[in-house]
Design goal:
By secondary structure, the chain is of the alpha/beta class. 31% of the residues lie in helices and 25% in strands. The radius of gyration is 28 Å and the shape is globular.
Length: 556
């Protein structure tokens, strides 16, 4: 009798971290499996640790090798950490993509705005619909989140049903879109859920996330009571928040001016897909300066302190159309993503120095998370009654707390995994049965580099300690043809005693060359290595740091 197919799961990104989500499900045996990918997202570079790196993406080398067995890519929703890597990585996979209407439209707009984006077809599935993708039957179950048309995926297979939650929360009054479909989730629980692969972002927070409707009420009160100009910044993709701001402006008899390309793009897609039906038309930035101060509201990008976004330019007083003055107000209808605190703090401080009133979620309910707190996690477990729970979408602490909560809620099996772990879900006892290659890719300008990239490693070292460049011209007889050239970049001009570093390094180069036997002076590699070591040593002696040193030896 033939053994039944195994259902396996492996996260290639998004576990032990927040962002860069990519999960894969496999059906078959260890010799041959059909694969289904869920989401393909990015996380963002950190200038301190990854200077010059714009985006970080999951390494898809495993899927490239399995390309002929990759049945498709399904998107849970259209946030960058779930779909931001598709334009760069899809050409390596060229698999079918499945998404609902809003996600597909936002992706199309993103491609249109990108120079030389490949033509990437997307199959649109209705919200609540089902589609066969190879041996997988995938059902899109509506859930509330901070962007329209977020979906949990019920992945139905012969080996059982997996519920991949995506990003979700329970919000009976989400302001836009459908609430989390409790009825269908309870039905799945009745039918039997083999495994719940669940969002852990807020697993450390007790209680329940407040509703978008409560935020909308706060924003209306704040805008109506404001005296001068008002600017509101939020995540561009949060259409419910955009609608709340529009409703507040209407209640206060203000015009909404949209500032920032990302915000303009989302507004256009939301109108095309019907999510802003009945909402007044917005104005372009050129009219901002012509409207009375108490009749205008600027809806801006830049809630995370992005240097090129609208709010940073306004705070630095270098935006061509939008200005704020003493007595005006800025509402941060967002939370600061960890790692962005310095950039956001700098904007807030600049605004305050201009006399602008700054309102954040520290003092007013102007933002709510799109992720479930602990009571909501308990509800999901109670509704679906999974045999196995695997926490994903979180750092180590979030995964640990979600796992602990699941065990306390009576889930029979709970597994905490890492990126690259290959997990057997069923049939039979679940567990980690192997590992698949995983890692990171860095987008450096227009080039994709792997994590071991020389450019990334060396740039990090140069950011810490600068770089020394030495050029030496030697004759065939091993004599200097001219004085060496020394160029120091990012290194102090003088040491503690006030001596110029250029002179210190030049002297070290000269004494090293003169101290070498003629045979070594005639060997460019040996000469270069001796000078490199001497330069690094002398700089370390006078500064306490060893910068990279590049030596170019030319024989004339």
């Amino acid at each position: 009798m033939a053994r039944p197919d195994e259902l396996v799961f492996a996260p290639l990104g998004g576990v032990g971290e927040i962002g860069m989500n990519l999960s894969i499900y496999g059906l078959g045996n260890r010799h041959q499996r059909s694969w289904l990918a869920v989401d393909l997202g990015v996380s963002f570079g950190d200038e301190e640790h990854l200077p010059g790196i714009d985006l970080i993406m999951p390494d898809i080398g495993f899927l490239e090798k399995e390309r002929k067995n990759l049945m498709g890519l399904v998107l849970t929703h259209a946030h960058e950490d779930h779909f931001g890597a598709i334009i760069d990585l899809w050409p390596k996979l060229q698999c079918p993509i499945y998404a609902t209407k809003f996600s597909a439209a936002l992706f199309e707009a993103k491609c249109a705005a990108e120079r030389n984006a490949p033509n990437i077809p997307v199959t649109v599935i209705p919200s609540g619909g089902r589609v066969d993708i190879g041996p997988f039957n995938v059902e899109f179950i509506p859930v509330a989140h901070s962007i329209p048309e977020s979906h949990a995926l019920a992945i139905h297979t012969e080996a059982g049903t997996v519920l991949h939650t995506g990003d979700w929360k329970i919000d009976p009054t989400p302001n836009i879109g459908r609430p989390t479909d409790e009825k269908r989730l309870r039905e799945l629980g009745e039918e039997g859920v083999l495994a719940l692969i669940g969002d852990s972002t807020n697993a450390v927070r007790d209680g329940r996330s407040p509703s978008e409707t409560e935020v909308a009420r706060t924003i209306i009160d704040l805008v109506k009571s404001a005296k001068g100009r008002v600017a509101v910044t939020t995540f561009a993709s949060n259409v419910a928040r955009i609608k709340a701001v529009a409703d507040a402006a209407k209640a206060a008899d203000r015009e909404v001016v949209v500032v920032g390309r990302a915000m303009e793009r989302v507004v256009q897609v939301a109108r095309e897909t019907g999510y802003l039906d009945g909402v007044q038309n917005f104005r372009s930035p050129e009219v901002y300066g012509h409207l009375p101060q108490d009749k205008v509201l600027a809806l801006c990008t830049g809630s995370q302190g992005e240097a090129r976004a609208a709010l940073a330019r306004i705070a630095n007083d270098d935006h061509p159309e939008i200005t704020l003055n003493r007595g005006d107000s800025v509402i941060f209808s967002s939370r600061t993503i960890p790692g962005n605190e310095k950039a956001v703090g700098a904007i807030i401080n600049n605004l305050i120095l201009q006399g602008v009133e700054v309102i954040t979620d520290r003092t007013h309910l102007v933002h709510v998370s799109g992720h479930p707190r602990r009571d909501e996690l308990r509800d999901m477990i109670a509704w679906t009654r999974p045999q196995l729970l695997i926490p994903v979408h979180g750092e180590a602490l979030h995964l640990h707390e979600h796992a602990k909560l699941a065990r306390a809620a009576g889930v029979p099996r709970v597994l905490v995994v890492r990126n690259g772990d290959l997990v057997k879900l069923g049939p039979g006892d679940p567990g980690i049965i192997g590992e698949v290659p995983s890692g990171r890719l860095y987008k450096d300008g227009t080039i994709l580099e792997d994590a071991k990239s020389r450019a990334v490693v060396e740039r990090r070292r140069m950011a810490f300690s600068g770089c020394a460049f030495v050029a030496i011209a030697m004759t065939a007889q091993g004599e200097l043809a001219d004085d060496p050239e020394v160029d120091l970049v990012g290194i102090p001009e003088k040491n503690r005693a006030g001596e110029p570093f250029d002179d210190i390094v030049f002297d070290a180069v000269m004494s090293t060359i003169e101290g070498l036997p003629r045979a070594r002076r005639r060997d460019p590699d040996a000469l270069g290595e001796s000078v490199r070591r001497a330069v690094r040593a002398v700089i370390n002696e006078h500064w306490g740091k060893k910068p990279p040193c590049l030596v170019h030896v030319l024989t004339v």
